[in-house]
Amino acid sequence: MKATGIIVEYNPFHNGHLHHLQQTRIKTNNDIVIAVMSGNFLQRGEPALVDKWTRSKMAIASGVDLVIELPYAFATAQASDFAKGAIFLLDALKCSSFCFGSEEGSLEAFQQTYSLLSTKKDEYNTAIANYIKKGISYPKALNEAYNDISKASTDRLVDLSKPNNILGYHYVQAANLLNSNIKPETIQRVVANFHDDANNNETIASATGIRKLLFEGQKISEVNAFMPSPSLEGLKDWESIYFSFGSWEKFYPTLRIFILRSSKEKLAQIAEITEGMENAIWKAAKTHTNFESFMQQIKSKRFTWTRIQRMLTHIYTDFTWDQLRDIDLPTYIRPLSMNKKGQAYLQSIKKDLQLPLISRVAASKNDKQLQLDIKAADLYYLGLQSSFGQSMVGSDFRTAPIIQE
């Protein structure tokens, strides 16, 4: 059996994801699709709408064969490290290819962009540093430097101001830097862009648009047109148990306690917190009782909303600079859900895996990365502020990989 990989968050799984999955099967013509999926906290620095187990079941019910968890340290990282962790795991799982959605839709453009930036690496890095000195955010500095470097090129290049193009570039970059034989493929994103609101005249909406509807108090039936039935049922089941969805507004009271019980010196040791942001965060937590007003006080031109949210995620999980610097690549493969085909594939490659395969965390709980995953899962359920959420603390020890027919 040949496998292709996809890198996902499925927050939640919607019709655009289904399109990507179906087109991936057509484009690669492989037997198995493996998804490396973020756990309970995501790359944009926010809690997942529903937990990793629920999202993995949505994925399997809609056609993915095997879902593997991307460890917390990579799932909540900047784009380059997020991509590195995910591609490393897909390579370790013997995937012959990986396929990502992009606004660009042309693999040649990604390859030529990687070639350009590799060739002009020193010039590119110097330009980035110069823009950062002007006080703009790191992502904006990257884009400005890229625009400068690319002006003289006649090749077809990727627009790196687009969110999926940025991730796609880093996937291609990671595969090259890891000297992987895994072959990249891309599929053009259709209808809804990454941050677009949901449009009732369409059947595809962004995950951002779907979440916005739910957070605004819309009933799950209002997102019916944008999601496959297994995803809708998953959301309904979740809401019937937990009564609400994961969000920073829901988690903020707990986050606020964690901030205010820390000293500013302790906050400065948390991963991604730099340039005195610990002072702004602590001061805002003293006065603001809701997340939106808290964020409005601490946002700045220097740091993107996403970067600040990642700081807050790391405060919430107590993930420090020392821990971050101690992590290079994923140290295990952890399945969350699979169907019979995915199970058979995993069995067929099990003896050749270079990483330990973790089905039950109790046997490998001393792994530092796994400890982070377990803690992040427990804190996620506590953040839901429900008795059912509290009962889920420790569930990583009790939950085996889900096998669906």
From TrEMBL:
It catalyses: cytidine(34) in elongator tRNA(Met) + acetate + ATP = N(4)-acetylcytidine(34) in elongator tRNA(Met) + AMP + diphosphate. It comes from Psychrobacillus psychrodurans. One of its GO terms (molecular function) is tRNA binding. The lineage of its organism: Bacteria, Bacillati, Bacillota, Bacilli, Bacillales. Its EC number is 6.3.4.-. This is tRNA(Met) cytidine acetate ligase. It is found in: Cytoplasm. HAMAP family: TmcAL. PANTHER family: TRNA(MET) CYTIDINE ACETATE LIGASE. GO terms for biological process: tRNA modification. InterPro entries: Rossmann-like_a/b/a_fold, tRNA(Met)_cyd_acetate_ligase. It comes from the Bacteria. ATP binds at residues 7-20, 101, 164, 189. Catalyzes the formation of N(4)-acetylcytidine (ac(4)C) at the wobble position of elongator tRNA(Met), using acetate and ATP as substrates. First activates an acetate ion to form acetyladenylate (Ac-AMP) and then transfers the acetyl group to tRNA to form ac(4)C34. The keyword Zinc does not apply. Keywords: ATP-binding, Cytoplasm, Ligase, Nucleotide-binding, RNA-binding, tRNA processing, tRNA-binding. GO terms for cellular component: cytoplasm. Belongs to the TmcAL family.
